[in-house]
């Protein structure tokens, strides 16, 4: 990576508080995090550590209680629906559950056409649009001829998740936020999905933010790893540093809890 | 009954076979009267004090196998052929209602997927335990039940206060461990755990695994069958691993053999998709298996993996392939010999 890393997305003092009074829960607690252009960063934490809340704030789906998000050095402005849509051209997401990521009333053609339209391809001739859609489907090993006029529920989970990647391929965003993209998929299709994501990243040079609780996965795909505990980041650094030589007690415990193959897995520490 | 609170079974040094399944075939019948053979001529043996892991991708018949070897044949699941012997008793042709009464819970216990979400939110855990005992005609006093449950929970390192709580008051990991504890209440011979840790985070997962090991050590259960698609976990929990593909066993062996030296191309592909956070694992190239498993409504005549196999031969598609036993409990289902397969993998 170049010495001059260009800041892509960053936050300052980002906080989200749910509830108030005695029921107050601080889900994300004054988080300052920086994502650089072209890197793959992972946010790792246990359930309830605030990973998804952070992701939703980065996407602009929920408003932060406090703090700001900066996109490419400038303060993000999503005050109107139009500005929000403009922002979403730059940042896209793949969620954990592919079954709930689609509108069930809209067929696959319209899902993909929307992406082309969002990139300003509304005026293109239909044949060109079909060609683009077929290319995107081909990229994720799906056959467009088989998918056309089908509805999302007619696909399997793995196919849906791949179609999600095809959407990203058409949209070519600057940032992709992947929130547990492989946790509902079994191990051998997981490899396919990861490979596609990495290839796509190479092709369009985007920043990928992986949110996961799977430490093995985070170690495998990412350049930087951020460990999150109770809404705060406890440790950040390069993947080798954090996963192989963790400094914080929390990180050490987390990593010792992952089943190992080549080393002895110590069960007595629970 | 009251005196027999948690009588722990004596562990014999002899390697008794607790569960033996021979050529078991079962089918699902859909509402269009189509037969789906999700378990196809499966044979397995579980010895006392041993654990068996079943791996495979979703839809390969892992959970159906679990239901089948309990004799739980309620429509649409139907028994076709084969023998199931548990602790010397053949249950393959037993009436399912009879199985439910005298086998389930007592001889063989089953923890289905996401069992922890099935706890009744309006009842305390102790009430749930009372229900279990009453369903098995064990009419004992409430005090006895409480004593028994408390001893069980304390032996397993669970706080006894859990008994007086409602499921919503417990965390996911605690709920799962409670469900496991309740499943061994009647001291079954075999415990079948189907994805017991898939919805939990790593720390709770480790607690669940530790508890399963403890169950065997203490002697609450004699053998464990563990079903999951997470191979690093399986490797750490079980002695033997069996890989299933499209309703058939494709590879069988000890955990070490199957993980580090698999023969069947599908097993090889599965092992190539393992990711663990250990030194040097970043540079390992993941192998993906292209394609999808065959539809079991009309399975292919030859090898079921042929469509997705890198090393496919024309014979693979026409000849049905038998499970090849190669000694020491090791078996695989492929047309090629061990040497040929090793040669393939060496050359990539």
Fold blueprint:
The complex is a heterodimer of chains A (270) and B (348).
Chain A: E1 7-18, E2 25-31, E3 34-36, E4 40-45, H1 51-59, E5 66-71, E6 74-75, H2 81-88, E7 91-94, H3 108-118, H4 126-139, H5 144-147, H6 157-171, E8 175-179, H7 187-204, E9 207-212, H8 215-221, E10 224-229, E11 232-238, H9 239-244, H10 249-256
Parallel strand pairs in A: 4-9, 4-10, 7-8, 8-9
Antiparallel strand pairs in A: 1-2, 1-3, 1-5, 5-6, 10-11
Helix pairs in contact in A: 3-6, 4-6, 6-7
Chain B: E1 17-29, E2 35-47, E3 51-55, H1 62-69, E4 77-86, E5 89-90, H2 96-102, E6 108-111, H3 125-135, H4 142-155, H5 172-183, E7 190-194, H6 202-218, E8 223-227, H7 231-237, E9 240-245, E10 248-254, H8 255-260, H9 265-271, H10 314-318, E11 324-325, E12 331-332, H11 338-347
Parallel strand pairs in B: 3-8, 3-9, 6-7, 7-8
Antiparallel strand pairs in B: 1-2, 1-4, 4-5, 9-10, 10-12, 11-12
Helix pairs in contact in B: 3-4, 5-6
CATH topology of chain A: Rossmann fold
CATH superfamily of the largest domain in chain B: P-loop containing nucleotide triphosphate hydrolases
Number of helices of chain B: 11
CATH architecture field of the largest domain in chain B: 3-Layer(aba) Sandwich
- Shape type of chain A: globular
Mean of pLDDT of chain A: 88
Strand content of chain A: 15-25%
Count of helices of chain A? 10
Lateral arrangement of strands in the main beta sheet of chain A: 7-8-9-4-10-11
Q: Please tell me the total number of domains of chain B.
A: 2
> How do the strands of the widest beta sheet of chain B line up side by side?
6-7-8-3-9-10-12-11
Task: Calculate Rg of chain A over CA atoms.
Answer: 19 Å
N-to-C SSE series of chain B? Answer: EEEHEEHEHHHEHEHEEHHHEEH
Can you identify the CATH class of chain A? Alpha Beta
- Rg over alpha carbons of chain B: 21 Å
State the distance separating the first and last CA atoms of chain A. 39 Å
């Amino acid at each position: 990576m170049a010495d001059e890393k260009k800041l892509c997305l960053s936050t300052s003092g980002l906080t989200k508080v749910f509830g108030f009074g005695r029921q107050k829960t601080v889900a994300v607690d004054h988080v300052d995090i920086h994502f650089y252009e072209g890197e793959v960063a992972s946010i790792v934490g246990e359930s309830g550590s605030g990973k998804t809340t952070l992701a939703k704030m980065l996407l602009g789906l929920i408003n932060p209680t406090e703090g700001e998000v900066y996109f490419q050095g400038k303060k993000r402005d999503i005050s109107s629906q139009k500005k929000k849509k403009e922002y979403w051209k730059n940042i896209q997401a793949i969620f954990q559950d592919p079954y709930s990521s689609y509108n069930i009333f809209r067929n696959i053609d319209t899902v993909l056409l929307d992406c082309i339209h969002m990139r300003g391809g509304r005026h293109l001739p239909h044949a060109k649009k079909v060609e683009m859609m077929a290319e995107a489907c081909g990229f994720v090993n799906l056959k467009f001829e088989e998918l056309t006029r089908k509805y999302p529920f007619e696909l399997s989970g793995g196919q849906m998740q791949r179609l999600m990647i095809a959407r990203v391929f058409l949209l070519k965003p600057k940032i992709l936020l992947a929130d547990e993209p492989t946790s509902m998929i079994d191990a051998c299709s997981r490899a396919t999905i990861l490979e596609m994501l990495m290839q796509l990243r190479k092709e369009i040079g985007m920043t990928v933010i992986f949110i996961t609780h799977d430490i093995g996965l985070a170690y495998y795909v990412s350049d930087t790893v951020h460990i999150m505990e109770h809404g705060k980041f406890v440790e950040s650094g390069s993947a080798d540093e954090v996963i192989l030589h963790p400094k914080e007690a929390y990180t050490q415990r987390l990593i010792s809890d992952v089943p190992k193959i080549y080393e002895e897995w110590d069960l007595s520490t629970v | 009954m009251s005196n027999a609170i948690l009588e722990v079974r004596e562990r014999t040094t002899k390697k008794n076979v607790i569960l033996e399944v021979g050529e078991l075939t079962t089918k699902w019948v859909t509402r269009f009267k189509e037969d789906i053979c999700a378990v196809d001529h499966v044979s397995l043996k579980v010895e006392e004090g041993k654990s068996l892991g079943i791996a495979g991708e979703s839809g390969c018949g892992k959970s159906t196998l679990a239901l089948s070897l309990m004799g739980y044949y309620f429509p649409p699941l139907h028994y076709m052929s084969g023998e199931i012997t548990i602790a010397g008793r053949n249950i393959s042709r037993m009436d399912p209602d009879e199985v439910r009464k005298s086998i389930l819970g007592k001889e063989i216990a089953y923890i289905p997927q996401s069992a922890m979400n099935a706890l009744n939110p309006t009842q305390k855990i102790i009430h749930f335990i009372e229900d279990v005992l009453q369903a098995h005609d064990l009419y004992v006093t409430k005090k006895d039940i409480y004593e028994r449950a408390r001893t069980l929970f304390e032996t397993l390192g669970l706080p006894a206060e859990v008994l007086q709580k409602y499921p919503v008051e417990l965390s996911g990991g605690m709920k799962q461990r409670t469900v496991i504890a309740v499943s061994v209440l009647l001291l079954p011979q075999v415990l079948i755990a189907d994805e017991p840790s898939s919805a939990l985070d790593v720390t709770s997962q480790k607690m669940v695994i530790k508890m399963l090991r403890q169950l065997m050590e203490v002697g609450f259960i004699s053998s464990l069958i563990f079903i999951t698609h997470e191979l690093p976990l399986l490797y750490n929990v079980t002695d033997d691993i069996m890989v299933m593909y499209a309703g058939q066993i494709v590879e069988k062996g000890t955990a070490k053999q199957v993980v580090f030296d698999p023969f069947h191309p599908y097993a090889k592909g599965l092992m190539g998709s393992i990711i663990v956070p250990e030194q040097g694992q970043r540079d390992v190239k993941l192998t993906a298996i292209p394609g999808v498993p065959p539809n079991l409504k009309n399975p292919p005549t030859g090898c079921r993996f042929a469509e997705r196999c890198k090393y496919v031969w024309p014979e693979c598609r026409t000849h049905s392939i038998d499970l090849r036993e190669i000694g020491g409990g090791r078996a695989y289902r492929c047309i090629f010999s061990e040497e040929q397969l090793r040669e393939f993998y060496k050359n990539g």
